[in-house]
Structures are given as C-alpha cells and as structure tokens.
Design a protein that fits this description.
Elements lengths: L7 H15 L9 E6 L1 H5 L9 E4 L11 E5 L5 H4 L3 H4 E6 L5 E7 L11 H14 L5 E5 L2 H9 L4 H10 L4 H4 L5 E3 L7 H11 L4 E4 L3 E6 L2 H21 L10 H10 L12
Helix pairs in contact: 5-9, 6-10, 7-10
The structure holds Dihydroxyacetone (2HA) and zinc ion.
Amino acid sequence: MKDIMTAPFVKEMCETTANMYRLYWDERNGGNISYLLHEDEVAEYLDTTKVIRTFDTGFEAPDLIGKYFIVTGSGKYFKNVEKDPEDNMGIIRIAEDGTTAELLWGFKDGVSRPTSELPAHLMSHQARLKVDPENRVVLHCHPTNILAMTYVHELDAKKFSHTLWEMSTECIVVFPEGVEVLPWMLCGTNSIGEATAEKMQNARVVLWAMHGIYGAGKDLDETFGLVETVEKAAMIYMKIAHLPKVNTIQDSELKELAEYFGVDYRKDYLEA
Ligand code: 2HA
Ligand code: ZN
C-alpha cells in the first residue's frame, strides 16, 4: 500500500485550499471542497474494507452509492489543510443505504465530520453527473468581489451573467452557460442543497447571494479556474460600477467570441 500523503489527490487538495486561502476566498472555516475519487485510485493507498466511523448525512443520494469523495471538514480552516491534511480532510464513501457516509481516512481527531455543506455538495454532484458524467469536483468559497457584487447588482441570473460576461473578454468562453443565482438562504441545510443542485443542472456556477459561490467541474484546476474567472470579472465590476462607463463589450462582440471559440452559450442572455 502506498503512502496516502503522496497521493496526487491529497497534494492537489492541499495546493488548492492553500491558494484559495491566500486569495481571501476562505477566511476562518469558510469554504469547502468535495472531490470524487475513483475506487482504484483510493485502493492504491487505503484498505477500502476498513471503515473508521460513519456519519448520517440526513438525506438520500441514491446515485452516489459506493462513490468515494475526499472532503474538507466541518469547522476546519483552509489555512491549515496543507499543514495537516489528515486532520482537516476525510475520505468518505456513500454506503449502500445512500444516506450514510463511511469514513475511510482522515478527521484524525476522532470527532470531526465532513463539511456542514455536505448536502449541497452531494446533491450538486448528483445533479452535475447527470449532465456531465466527467464532473468530479464541487467547490464552495467566499470570494470578496463576487460577494460584494451580490449586494449591489440585481440578483437575476440573466442580468448577472450578462454583466459578468461584459467585464472581460474571456468570460463568455469560460462560462458560456452563465451563472445561476440564489437569493440569501440559510446555509448548511437540505433546502439550500436542493436549490443549489437544481441550479447546477443549468450551470457550473451557482452564486449564493451575500454568502459566496459554488463551482463544479471535472478536476480541481478547471473548477478553481472557473471560480477565479468569475471572481476576476466581479473584481472589475466592483472597480468600475461607480464610474461612468464609456466603453463595453457589445452583445454582437460577445456573440462573435462565443461563435469563434465554438462554445454553447446562453443565446437568450444576449440581445444580438
Ligand atoms: O464551511 O462556508 O457555508 C463554512 C461555510 C458554510
Ligand atoms: Zn460558505
């Protein structure tokens, strides 16, 4: 059995959480990540028959039975993941009943649990896997500018997506499906999980107004890059929203971009 500390997925989780922390996306215990692992990947490092503890997830995820995830822990700080991966993260498998999570590694203090946002994560994985069988990552964080923008911009998915697209040339290419937006809701609940998962059927980015962002993708790099691009657009918006706008990217130019790069964009979000 190989040393799990050398596993690429553990290293990538460490690097990603450290980058997110340094970008001010994850203060204190803010943010959480779940990353779907393949059984053969896990079996190189762990005896998958040894369950350390179990958790009741409080909901059913029938499509995820037998699936493995590396997840960040409830109350854990992204700042600390790199220093002590085995304390701040866990590897879980969804049991045969679809509602129990079996811990196979991590949360070594013996009491810690997976992220409080596990419902939103697992429900989002289910939703994304239906539209993209290659989806493996769901990531939540609190980027400063996207959060700020939800205080001053209308929370309409079409208008919000259009504004973000206008903020930089690459946006419509990186998230051609736009972003979905939820109003303020109580976090950590099944309700916000269900609402997020429903929106995840249409887009890989779901904004939680006055709270943060959910991003999904096929690997950590892609998902991180997606959130990074949305956050950069929001940063530009927050720099210019109070200034007279003299120039912008026209709808005809957004269309030209989307067509040139061959992306399947939300045509109904453009006037052109
Ligand atoms: O894990 O970000 O939404 C802390 C949070 C809750
Ligand atoms: Zn949060």
